[in-house]
Specification:
2 copies of one chain form a homodimer. By secondary structure, the first copy, chain A, is of the alpha/beta class. Chain A has one domain: Alpha-Beta Complex (Maf protein), CATH 3.90.950. Chain A contains 5 helices and 7 strands, in the order βαβαββαβββαα. In chain A, strand 5 and strand 6 form a beta hairpin. In chain A, helix 1 crosses helix 5. Chain A is globular, with a radius of gyration of 16 Å.
Chain lengths: ~190, ~190
């Protein structure tokens, strides 16, 4: 599998933009909103999602999923963060994280390429903390409340796209995937 | 479909016990831990779960799922309560609900019978609130923190099985399902 031949399946255009910026390629894209299975294990969700994407697209696919683990809630909601965001928004996430007196958080991204036979994963992890209230209008999702370590205390939402991408969990996952694809015995297909 | 001919598919023996007590029948049972899809819509999850159960069992199945909606979190986690419970336990749920200054909660149960062609639903809703700390050692899951309206201020965990079943969301869902099955044009199959 070659990275440039993958179809990125995501309904989130923010993620598409970041992936293309990070990889420096234009990715083919399909905006399908795939069903995801319930789990706290990101890899399990992404593996299943890659199969669903392949069944729909019938060509080698790229999918990813992101997890936001709140230390005060022992890792919850993890990959279920999407639904917490829908329900309470970034301000609610901030309030929750601080209700538990431990605002640390871990963000993970896992990307998976799947061609119907072989699967290749790449993951990226960033540690940081949740802001007391949302800050910054850039980015998407919960970017306004996540303060990554090494970002000078700013939230992702306060960074330019270039600044965010220099740090981000998604960049790390996609770069790890790119490397894994290059090393994979299937890379010549 | 006849209720007594359904195979109840659940990995939770507490739910099996309650269903049998409530319906007054012995149900055939398979302890499969079925994958559930991510959603905040209980019916969507239960419909998909019924199909997965049927694919495994190949006989008319009964499945159910339960949702705990925290008013302070605008309904979150809903059907994802299982994962919040795994992560923070009943005490964590209590702490969360009270962090938002609105401890009201709604519990829903949805049961679904599916025979490969027809599906019949029954749902039960109970309003109440979340206790400040867990109380009572009976029941299972989050029973120790849910105080149903009309239960004299006690949590499900402080009630005998008979007391809980007289009120419970699961009894209401199963009775509604029983009625729906009796009225269904497919009841003679």
């Amino acid at each position: 599998m070659k990275l440039a031949s993958l179809v990125f399946v995501t309904s989130n255009l923010g993620k598409l933009r970041e992936a293309q910026d990070v990889l420096g390629v234009t990715l083919e894209h399909q905006a399908l909103d795939l069903v995801e299975i319930q789990s706290l294990e990101l890899k399990e969700i992404v593996r299943d999602k890659a199969r669903r994407a392949y069944e729909r697209v019938r060509r080698p696919v790229l999918v990813e999923d992101t997890s936001l683990e709140l230390a005060g809630m022992r890792g919850f909601p993890g990959p279920l963060i999407r639904w917490m965001l829908v329900s309470v928004g970034p301000a609610g996430i901030a309030r929750l994280a601080h209700a538990f007196a431990d605002p640390r958080a871990i963000v993970r991204c896992m990307a998976c390429a799947f061609d119907g036979h072989d699967e290749v994963f790449g993951s990226g992890v960033i540690r940081g903390m949740i802001a007391e209230t949302p800050r910054g209008r850039r980015g998407f999702g919960w970017d306004s409340v996540f303060i990554p370590d090494g970002g000078g205390g700013r939230t992702y939402g306060e960074m330019t796209p270039a600044e965010k991408n220099a740090i981000s969990h998604r960049r790390r996952a996609l770069e790890a995937l790119k490397e894994a694809l290059a090393e994979s015995p299937f890379s010549s297909r």
